[in-house]
Specification:
heterodimer; A: 365 residues; 3% strand; B: alpha/beta; four-stranded antiparallel sheet; globular; binds iron/sulfur cluster
Chain lengths: 365, 522
C-alpha cells in the first residue's frame, strides 16, 4: 500500500483516540470528590448562610447540576475553545492553557536535547557492541546500561547534583532561570507576562533563543544549565535504547538474509552497515517513541530537583496548589496538564508510526 | 540418458570447479561439540548438477554452507580440510585464523586472530557471489525485507561487475563500423537459431545496448543488405550515447581495475605464504604496498567521492546495473519485471521470491550455483517451475549446480551425479541412474526402498520400507561406521573402524565394509 493511505488511515485512528483521552480526563475531573472542587469557590471565612449560597453558585457555574453527558459535552466545547479553566499555584496563576504555553518550551528544550544526546550516543555505541556480542566491550556496555536503566531518576539527579553542583555551582543546581537575571544578556529580547516572569523570544527556549539572537555568552550559560538535567534524563533513555539496539543487532545478525548478503560477496563492513544496522535500528524507532513517554514522567522529577520551571513543575504545582491554609488541589490544572501530556504522547506515537512506515515497507499494510 | 553418459565421459579429463577434501565442520554448543561433518569429500565439475541427498540433520546444508565458509561463527567452525574453488584453496589458513583448544566437550576455547580473519573475509568476499552463488531454502527469509528486489540484485552487480560494465560502456561510446561488420559476418556464418540469438545477445551485452537486442534481431531477420544493417546498428548505438562523462568512467574503471590488481596480488601473496616462499612473499608484499600507494595518491578524490556520494558518482553504472537486473528478472520468467524490480520481498509470492533469488545469484555470471533445498518451501507447481529454471540455466549457460535436497524425486529429475549423505559422511556417490537402479550402501538401499516408484510397479507387491532407528545424535556419534546401529548387515569391524569412500566400479564410490575393507586412517 502507498504510504499516503497509511498516513490517512493512521490519522483517522487518531480521532477515536482523542475522544477516548478527553473522556478519561473528564472522568478524572469528576472522579475527585466534588466538594473539594466546590471548596475552591467558597470563602471559608464567610457565614454558613453565605457559604451555602456560594456553594450553590459554584455548582451552577461549574454546571455540576446537569446530567453527566451534558457536562461532558460542555467540557468538550470548553476544550475546543481552548478553555481549560484556571489554576492558582506557587509558580503560576492564570489560565491553564496559557500556563502550558509558557512552561512547555522549557521542558521541550530539555527533552529535545535529551533525545538528540541519547540517540547520538546510543546508535554508534549500540552498533558497536551489538556487532561483537559476548566480547569484553559488549559485557561492559551491557552491565552499564542495565545499571543506568534500573537507576531511579531522582536518585541519579541528586547524585549528579551532589557530585557536580558543589564545585560547578552553575551547573543546573540553581535551576534554569527563565527571568534571565544575573546573566550576561546582550541581545535576547525578553517579553514579560502578566505575573512578571520574563520569557525569551522567539521560541521561549533560552539556549536556542540565545543562539538565534547571536548572544553567545548567554548561550553558554544556558547550555551549562542544561547539562545536568539533560544528562540525568538521558541516562535512562540511553540505557534503554542501547540495550534495545544491541539486541536488535544480535538478532538481525542471525537472520538468513545476512547469510545471503555474505554469500553475495558483500564485504563485512558493508554487511554491517547496509544490511544489519538498518534492519536492527528500525524497531528502535518505536522504542524512542516509548522513551519519550518516560521522558515526560522523568521531567516532573528532574524539574523539581533542579528547580526548573517547566511543564513538569507546573503539573506538580497544580497538584499541590497554592500554599497556605487554602492549599487545594487545582483540578483544572491537573486535568489540563494530563490532557496535554496525553496529546503529546499521541503525537509522538503518530510521528513514530509514520517514520516507521516510511522506513519499513512491510508496515504499510 | 545416453547423452548424459557421454557427458560424464568427458568429465574425466576436466578439472573440478569445486573440490572439497576431508572437510570437517563442527559446532561448539553448550551441550557439546556437534560433529556435523566428518571428512566429507566431493567434487563438482563444470556444467554438471551434483545432488547431495540425505535425511534432515545429516549435514547436507552444513556442507553447502561450508563450501563458501558461511558457517556462522560462533558456534560453528570449519576445523580442517581443503576447499578448492576454481583451483584456489579458500581455507588453507585455518590455523592462522583461530586456535581451538578443546578442554572438554562443553568447554572449548577459541582464540581468533582478527587480522587473519579480516584478510580471509576480504578474499572470500571477492569469491563469494562472483565465482559461486547461492540460493536458499526459504526465499522469504533470505531476502532483505527492507531493500527492494532491484536494489538487492544490483548490489551484486555493483560489487562484482564494475569492470565489465566499464568496458561495455567504453566500447559503446567508441563503437566502430568494423566491429559491427565483424559481428554481422559472424552472425551470418552461424546456422543454428539459438546460437544466432546467443550471438546477438553477446554483442548487445558487450556494447551495453541490450534494449536494442530485439530490434537488431528483427533487422537481421528482415533485411539482407549488410551495409544497411551495419548503418542501422551504428545509428542505433550512436543515438543512444548519452553524452556521459567518459573521463569519469575511465577514472572509475581505473580505480576498480587497481582494486582487482590488489586482490590478485593478495591472492598471490597468500599462495606464496602457504608455500613458505620467502622471496616471493617479499616481492608480492612490496608490490602490494606499491599498489596501495597508487591507490592512496591518485584516487584520493575519487575514493572520497565514492564514500560520500556513491549513488551520484556511480549513477551511470547504476543505470546499467538496473538494465541488467531487468534482463535477469526476465530471464527467470518473472512477469512484469518493471514492477517487480521496485517491489519489496513481502510483496511477492514464494515462487517469485525464489526466482528473484535465482536472478540475484546469476547477476555476476558465476560458474556455479549452490542450491540449498531451493524448492522445499514452495508448493508443487512452483517447485517444478523453479527446477525447470535451474535445469535450463545449467543447460544454457553451462552453470554447475550443487543441489541439496532431501527429496529423491527432485534428485531423479535434476541431477547428473548424486552423493548420499548420512550423519555427516558421504556414504555413496554415483551417477543418478546408478544410484536409483543399483544402490550399494545399505543406507542408500533403505532410502531407495522408502519411496514409491512408478517404474517398479510391475512387482506385485510394492512394499515401502522404513529404515529402523533414528538419525544419530551428532554430539556423540556412533563409532566406526556411523550407520552401524541401524544397519542390517553390520559386522564387528563396523563399530571399530570407519569405512573409506572408495571407488568400487567406475565412478561409483561407496563407504562400506561390505564392498571394501579400506578404512579411514584416524
Ligand atoms: S560399514 Fe558396516 S555398518 Fe556401515 S553400512 Fe557397511 S555394513 Fe553397514
Amino acid at each position: 500500500m502507498e504510504l499516503k493511505y497509511y498516513i490517512i488511515r493512521r490519522l483517522l485512528v487518531l480521532i477515536p483516540t482523542i475522544i477516548g483521552l478527553l473522556l478519561l480526563t473528564f472522568i478524572l475531573l469528576r472522579a475527585i470528590p466534588v466538594n473539594d472542587l466546590i471548596a475552591n469557590y467558597v470563602n471559608q471565612k464567610a457565614t454558613p448562610a453565605e457559604k451555602a449560597l456560594e456553594k450553590q453558585q459554584a455548582i451552577t457555574l461549574l454546571g455540576l447540576g446537569q446530567p453527566l453527558p451534558v457536562q461532558f459535552f460542555t467540557y468538550l466545547t470548553d476544550v475546543a475553545n481552548g478553555n481549560l479553566g484556571n489554576m492558582y499555584s506557587a509558580y503560576y496563576n492564570g489560565g491553564v492553557l496559557r500556563g502550558i504555553e509558557l512552561f512547555l518550551p522549557v521542558t521541550l528544550e530539555i527533552a529535545i536535547f535529551t533525545v538528540i544526546f541519547s540517540v547520538l550516543i546510543s546508535i554508534p555505541l549500540g552498533t558497536f557492541i551489538g556487532s561483537r556480542p559476548n566480547s569484553v566491550s559488549d559485557s561492559v556496555g551491557r552491565v552499564f546500561s542495565l545499571i543506568f536503566y534500573a537507576m531511579p531518576i531522582f536518585w541519579l539527579a541528586l547524585m549528579l547534583q551532589y557530585a557536580f553542583g558543589k564545585n560547578l555551582l552553575f551547573l543546573g543546581s540553581y535551576g534554569l532561570p527563565i527571568n534571565g537575571q544575573g546573566f550576561p544578556i546582550q541581545q535576547v529580547g525578553f517579553v514579560h507576562n502578566h505575573t512578571g516572569y520574563s520569557y525569551s523570544v522567539p521560541t521561549h527556549m533560552l539556549f536556542i533563543d540565545a543562539v538565534l539572537n547571536l548572544d553567545f555568552p548567554l548561550a553558554v550559560v544556558a547550555f551549562e544549565h542544561l547539562i545536568l538535567p539533560v544528562l540525568t534524563l538521558s541516562m535512562t533513555v540511553l540505557a534503554g535504547l542501547l540495550r534495545f539496539i544491541r539486541a536488535g543487532m544480535v538478532d538481525t545478525s542471525n537472520q538468513e538474509y545476512i547469510k545471503t548478503a555474505r554469500a553475495k560477496g558483500v564485504p563485512e563492513k558493508l554487511v554491517l552497515k547496509r544490511h544489519i544496522r538498518k534492519n536492527a535500528l528500525l524497531p528502535s524507532v518505536t522504542v524512542i517513541g516509548l522513551l519519550v513517554a518516560g521522558l515526560l514522567g522523568g521531567a516532573v522529577v528532574v524539574e523539581d530537583i533542579f528547580q526548573i520551571t517547566g511543564l513538569g513543575r507546573l503539573s506538580l504545582a497544580a497538584i499541590t496548589g497554592t500554599s497556605g491554609n487554602g492549599a487545594n488541589i487545582q483540578f483544572f490544572g491537573v486535568a489540563g496538564t494530563v490532557l496535554f501530556f496525553g496529546l503529546i504522547l499521541m503525537l509522538t506515537n503518530l510521528i513514530v508510526d509514520i517514520v516507521y512506515a516510511f522506513l519499513d515497507p512491510r508496515i504499510r499494510y | 540418458m545416453i547423452v548424459e553418459e557421454s557427458k560424464t565421459e568427458k568429465k574425466k579429463n576436466l578439472k573440478p570447479y569445486v573440490e572439497v577434501k576431508d572437510l570437517v565442520t563442527q559446532f561448539f554448543t553448550s551441550r557439546g561439540i556437534v560433529k556435523a561433518l566428518d571428512k566429507v569429500s566431493f567434487s563438482v565439475y563444470p556444467g554438471e548438477i551434483y545432488g547431495l541427498v540425505g535425511e534432515s540433520g545429516c549435514g547436507k546444508s552444513v556442507t553447502s554452507t561450508s563450501v563458501m565458509d558461511l558457517i556462522p561463527d560462533p558456534p560453528g567452525r570449519i576445523i580442517s580440510g581443503e576447499i578448492y574453488i576454481d583451483g584456489f584453496n579458500i581455507i588453507a589458513d585455518l590455523n592462522k585464523m583461530a586456535r581451538i583448544k578443546i578442554k572438554s566437550e562443553t568447554d572449548v576455547r577459541i582464540r581468533r586472530y582478527k587480522k587473519a580473519i579480516k584478510r580471509h573475509n576480504n578474499v572470500l568476499s571477492k569469491i563469494r557471489g562472483d565465482k559461486i552463488a547461492m540460493i536458499f531454502q526459504e526465499p522469504f527469509l533470505a531476502l532483505n525485507p527492507t531493500m527492494t528486489i532491484g536494489d538487492q540484485i544490483m548490489e551484486v552487480i555493483m560489487l562484482h561487475n564494475i569492470s565489465s560494465i566499464s568496458n561495455s560502456i567504453l566500447r559503446r561510446e567508441n563503437i566502430s563500423s568494423g566491429e559491427v561488420r565483424n559481428f554481422i559476418t559472424e552472425f551470418y556464418s552461424i546456422n543454428d537459431e539459438t546460437q544466432k540469438r546467443k550471438e546477438v545477445n553477446n554483442f548487445a551485452a558487450s556494447y551495453a545496448i541490450q534494449e536494442f537486442e530485439e530490434s537488431i534481431l528483427s533487422l537481421l531477420a528482415t533485411s539482407d543488405d549488410k551495409q544497411y544493417i551495419e548503418n542501422e546498428i551504428l545509428n542505433m548505438v550512436r543515438e543512444n550515447r548519452t553524452g556521459m562523462n567518459i573521463q569519469n568512467i575511465r577514472e572509475i574503471k581505473g580505480y576498480f581495475d587497481l582494486q582487482n590488481d590488489i586482490f590478485q596480488n593478495t591472492l598471490r601473496l597468500l599462495q606464496a605464504e602457504r608455500n613458505g616462499d620467502s622471496s616471493a612473499i617479499k616481492q608480492f608484499n612490496s608490490e602490494l604496498s606499491k599498489l596501495k600507494r597508487i591507490e592512496a595518491s591518485s584516487f584520493f578524490l575519487l575514493r572520497l567521492k565514492l564514500k560520500f556520494a556513491y549513488k551520484y558518482v556511480m549513477k551511470e553504472y547504476r543505470k546499467e546495473a538496473r538494465r541488467r537486473t531487468l534482463e535477469l528478472l526476465t530471464l527467470v520468467n518473472i512477469a512484469g519485471p518493471e514492477v517487480v524490480i521496485d517491489s519489496y520481498p513481502h510483496e511477492l509470492s514464494g515462487g517469485m521470491q525464489q526466482r528473484a533469488m535465482i536472478a540475484m545469484s546469476l547477476a555476476s555470471n558465476p560458474r556455479m550455483l549452490i542450491a540449498d533445498e531451493p524448492t522445499t518451501a514452495l508448493d508443487v507447481t512452483t517447485q517444478a517451475q523453479i527446477l525447470e529454471i535451474i535445469k535450463d540455466l545449467n543447460k544454457l549457460i553451462g552453470m554447475a549446480v550443487l543441489f541439496i535436497t532431501h527429496d529423491l524425486a527432485v534428485i531423479a529429475e535434476t541431477c547428473n551425479r548424486v552423493g548420499v549423505m548420512y550423519a555427516g559422511n558421504i556414504v555413496e556417490e554415483s551417477s543418478t541412474i546408478e544410484i536409483f537402479n543399483d544402490p550399494k550402501h545399505p543406507y542408500t538401499v533403505g532410502l531407495m526402498s522408502s519411496v514409491p516408484r512408478a517404474d517398479k510397479k510391475r512387482e506385485k507387491e510394492i512394499k515401502l520400507e522404513t529404515i529402523p532407528g533414528t538419525v544419530p545424535n551428532l554430539i556423540t556419534p556412533p563409532s566406526g561406521c556411523r550407520f552401524h546401529p541401524r544397519c542390517k548387515f553390520a559386522m564387528d569391524i563396523c563399530s571399530l573402524k570407519k569405512p573409506k569412500l572408495v571407488e568400487i566400479s567406475e565412478r561409483h564410490k561407496v563407504a562400506c565394509f561390505l564392498y571394501s575393507d579400506e578404512s579411514e586412517v584416524e
